[in-house]
Design a protein that fits this description.
The complex is a heterodimer of chains A (236) and B (258). Chain A has 8 helices and 3 strands. In chain A, a hairpin with a 2-residue loop joins strand 2 and strand 3. The chains are: A mainly alpha (236), B alpha/beta (258).
């Protein structure tokens, strides 16, 4: 698994190098995008293909509780995966940027700002990751096949809903908003760029960030609970 | 559907395609849940999938899935889940079944994988052992070995249910026969009861003066079932018994449950 991860991450880093132009925010974008992409794929591998009766029989009849099975998946896909991915990502960055732009700097400078690194990591890495990972976990346990595609469609719908919510919110706060920048497609925007009065404007909203962080944390808990009950009630 | 099974029994679960044999086994193992009614296995309700219950059962399905790479890994990673696992027995069985302990499953045939799984299942020494078509994919010598292994590892505390279409594979192995028909258990008797009340014969000529309960087979050789009125001894022919029962369940139930 580690070898496959390295094999996928290194080309991703090169892609990032080509387009990031050493911009910490873009590096963070690449980091979070690939963290979630590989993490959700990794999560999906544990509960793939429920139609495979013998595999399902093995999984359900293994003498452990549904909770233990989910905790084991979480151990691999969260506790172990995030540090391994981060070390690989930052290590590769460090090696490629040499000394001019250390790999970890994007987390510290871009995310933390005036806050602590731990808080920045929690709100900008862990919360978005576990929110989407828990959703993929639920879809993978609930649905029998093509789970990844179904989950992606759901995510797309959530992102678009989020965009329209942000657009309406901006329009309500200001006047004459004609367009909101694509960055608001993210679930945790700390600032929103929009075109108003014929030029770009920026709005920083702690309220939006805090509300969406809380909502995502609550949703994550609900997704994990639903995953547990769905696995407990899973039948062949 | 009512079914009570006693420890120490080796039950043969027979039925036509679609009769519900696999479904019944899945219900007993907690892999499926009943729409109505309840199932109890010992002190457990299978649908709750209690860990103690899961470590007390082993289900060998018709299709098998082995996550580990070799029998050695299988023992290393799966055996700890089964507290009564007997490592010596596992080594002995896989040797008997001619499966290499260190060979990768990828390189083994379906039959070889199945033999490894059967060896592992028996070595777990669980209270309940369920097998769905265990002899499918086994060659002729392995089928004989399978019967011999099940008989030699008999445990008076274990309930073994073997479901199969290939009734000849269970000949002289089971001590109880359960027949499922139209998704109902229509027959659940011991082999002793069967041999006490019925006589099985193979001949083109049925003994004079006897009215057979069932006659089957082809012109080349007929099989028949007679009432055992003289306390005679004959070996139970499971295939003939099954065919006879399917052709007239009422009469066989009347005779055997009288």
């Amino acid at each position: 698994m580690l070898i496959s991860m390295v094999a996928i991450i290194i080309p991703a880093i090169f892609l990032e190098l080509k387009y990031s132009r050493y911009n910490p925010q873009t590096i963070y974008g690449f980091y979070i995008f690939f963290l979630i992409l590989f993490g959700t794929v990794f999560t999906s591998l544990f509960f793939k293909n429920w139609n495979h009766t013998s595999r399902t029989t093995f999984l359900l009849n293994l003498p452990s509780t549904a909770l233990e099975k989910i905790v084991l998946v979480q151990f691999y896909t969260v506790v172990l995966y995030i540090p391994v991915f981060t070390i690989l990502f930052c290590g590769t960055n460090l090696a490629l940027y040499e000394h001019s732009n250390p790999g970890m700097s994007f987390l510290i400078t871009e995310l933390a700002g005036k806050q602590s690194v731990v808080f920045a990591f929690f709100t900008s890495v862990l919360v978005p990751y576990i929110f989407l990972q828990s959703f993929f976990l639920l879809i993978n346990i609930w649905i029998k096949k093509s789970q990844y595609v179904i989950a992606l469609v759901f995510i797309l719908v959530i992102l678009l809903t989020n965009y329209f919510f942000m657009f309406s919110y901006m329009k309500w706060l200001t006047s004459g908003v004609s367009s909101v920048a694509g960055s608001t497609l993210m679930l945790f925007p700390t600032r929103v760029l929009f075109i108003g009065g014929g030029h770009y404007q920026e709005m920083t909203s702690k309220l939006i960030f805090n509300i969406s962080t809380m909502v995502c944390l609550i949703m994550t808990m609900l997704f994990y609970m639903a995953s547990y009950f769905k696995l407990k009630e899973k039948e062949i | 559907m009512n079914l009570s099974l006693l420890p120490g029994g080796i039950y043969g679960l027979l039925g036509k395609n679609g009769a519900g044999k696999t479904t019944l086994l899945k219900l007993i193992c907690g892999l499926s849940f009943p729409d109505e009614g309840s199932i109890e296995v010992g002190d457990y309700t299978p649908s709750e999938r209690d860990v103690n219950f899961l470590s007390d059962i082993f289900f060998v399905g018709e299709e098998i899935y082995i996550a580990e790479r070799t029998p050695k890994e299988m023992e290393k990673y799966l055996a700890p889940f089964y507290p009564s696992f007997d490592s010596v027995l596992f080594h002995e069985l896989i040797k008997k079944l001619e499966v290499d302990y260190d060979e990768k499953f990828q390189q083994l045939s379906y039959g070889q994988k199945k033999k490894a799984m059967i060896a592992f299942a028996i070595s777990c020494k669980t209270k309940y052992l369920f097998m769905d078509e265990p002899t499918n994919g086994l060659d002729i010598p392995s089928k004989a070995l399978f019967r011999s292994i099940i008989a030699s590892t008999y445990d008076e505390n274990r309930i073994t249910i073997i479901s199969t279409h290939q009734v000849r594979d269970l000949q002289s192995l089971i001590d109880n026969v359960i027949i499922l028909n139209d998704q109902q258990i229509q027959f659940n008797v011991s082999m002793d009861q069967v041999s006490e009340k019925l006589i099985f014969g193979h001949s083109s000529l049925i003994p004079e003066g006897e009215v057979p309960l069932y006659v089957g087979g082809s012109e080349l050789g007929k099989s028949y079932i007679l009432m055992n009125n003289n306390n005679s001894q004959s070996q139970v022919d499971l295939e003939t018994l099954f065919n006879g029962f399917i052709s007239n369940p009422k009469i066989f139930n009347q005779i055997l449950n009288a």
